[in-house]
Structure formats: structure tokens, C-alpha cells
Amino acid sequence: MIGKILALLGLGNGRYNSMANNRRKHVRHPGFPAEVIVGNRAYGVRDWSMGGVAFETPADARLQAGDRLQVTLKFHLPHDTITLEQQARITRAVKRGVAAEFAPLPPTARRKLERVLDSIHAQSFIESQVA
Fold first, then answer.
1. Which of 13, 22, 30, 73 would you label with 40, given CA atoms 20 to 30 Å apart?
2. For residues 7 and 14, is the Cβ–Cβ distance under 8 A?
3. Which DSSP letter does residue 87 get?
4. Has this prediction a pTM greater than 0.85?
5. What pLDDT, in 10s, does the model give residues 43-99?
6. How confident is the model at residue 15 (pLDDT cuts 50, 70, 90)?
7. Angle, CA 75 vertex, CA 70 and CA 80 arms, to 5°
8. Strand ranges in the chain using DSSP code E only, listed in sequence order
9. Number of other residues whose CB lies within 10 A of the CB of residue 44
10. Strand partners, 84
11. CATH 2.40.10.220, domain 24-130, yes or no
């Protein structure tokens, strides 16, 4: 009953304690111009966080949960491209997409991702002042 009320109010998806079940360690950042390269293939990034990346794949990608891989992330900023190479482990693989968790980030990789976040926040601020 509580779940239904929360769903009607737009505060949940109808499942009891849905907010507690969807807690994540890191905030996801969707819709940012980026690509991930695995092997010699480039894929579009769905979203990313300080803990991992989700990306589009063709149905025949042959990537499976548990696979460890080297990923190269390229973030296309307005005046720069930030490239990050990182080890990752696939946590979920579906027909047209993969979610991978980063291995522990070294300080240089963390700083690069923080630069990307700074750029996102600066761009959001600029857009809010123009409107």
C-alpha cells in the first residue's frame, strides 16, 4: 500500500523501499559526449560514474559478465578531449549493452574524471545563466 502511494506521488516505482534498493556508490552521468574503446572497437557511452561505465554494443559483441578488460574512455569536452585508460570488469551484459565496474582508480585517473565533472558543472552553470 505504501509503495502504491509513493508511486502515485512520483516518489518511487511502486515497490516498497524502492529508494533503498537503488542506492549507488557513485552518481551516474548520462548524455555526455564520450566513447569507450575496447580492443579496436569504439562504443557510445550510455552513462558513466567514478565507479564505472555503461556503453552500447552490437548484439554480437561477445562480452560477458565477469570478463576483465582494458577500456579507453574519451570524453569530448568543448575545448579538450580527456583520455583515460582503465582496467574494468563487466558486471552486466545484455543484448545491446554492457556495464563495467572500474578497478580501483589510481590518483591520475581520478583527477582526469574530476576534470570531466568540473567541465560538466561549469557547462551547466553557463547554460543556467543564459536561459
1. 30
2. yes
3. E
4. no
5. 999 999 999 999 999 888 888 999 999 999 999 988 889 999 999 999 999 988 999
6. very low
7. 130
8. 29-30, 34-38, 41-49, 52-56, 68-77, 80-94, 97-102
9. 12
10. 73
11. yes
Return all residues near 21 (Cβ < 8 A) that are at least 6 apart: 15
pLDDT tens-digit series, residues 27-42:
888 878 899 999 889 9
Sequence-separated (6 or more) residues with CB below 8 Å from residue 48 = 28, 29, 32, 34, 54, 73
In this structure, what DSSP letter does residue 130 have? H
The pLDDT confidence band at residue 18, using thresholds 50, 70 and 90, is very low
Distance CA 60, CA 45 (A): 17
